[in-house]
Amino acid sequence: MAAHRFIFDDRDQAAAERLKIMNEVTGIHRCHTVFNCTMACPREIQITKAIGEVKAAISTGILD
């Protein structure tokens, strides 16, 4: 979640580097999008949605 917050902040100057790190084998692709983390989160943070946004940014190179 912290990486997502920085990546999508237009003031961040290291988004490309963060995406590169998250694209590694031990990174974001370990999430299988079954929403377990979202259901377990006591603060109702949409973790799986954030992970999906980062995955899309990695594949498209677009930060929306």
Q: What is this structure's SSE topology?
A:
Blueprint: H1 2-7, H2 15-22, H3 36-40, H4 47-60
Characterization of the model:
The mean pLDDT is 89. This protein has 4 helices and no strands. It has 64 residues and is mostly helical.
Give descriptors for this structure:
4 helices, 0% strand, globular
The percentage of residues in β strands lies in under 5%
Largest sheet: none
Number of helices: 4
Mean pLDDT: 89
* Helical coverage, percent range: 40-55%
Number of strands: 0
Give the termini distance in whole angstroms: 16 Å
Shape: globular
- Roughly how many Å is the radius of gyration? 12 Å
Structural class: mainly alpha
Order of helices and strands: HHHH
Q: Give start-end ranges of low-pLDDT stretches.
A: none
Give a quick summary of the entry.
The protein is mainly α and 64 residues long. It has 4 helices and no strands.
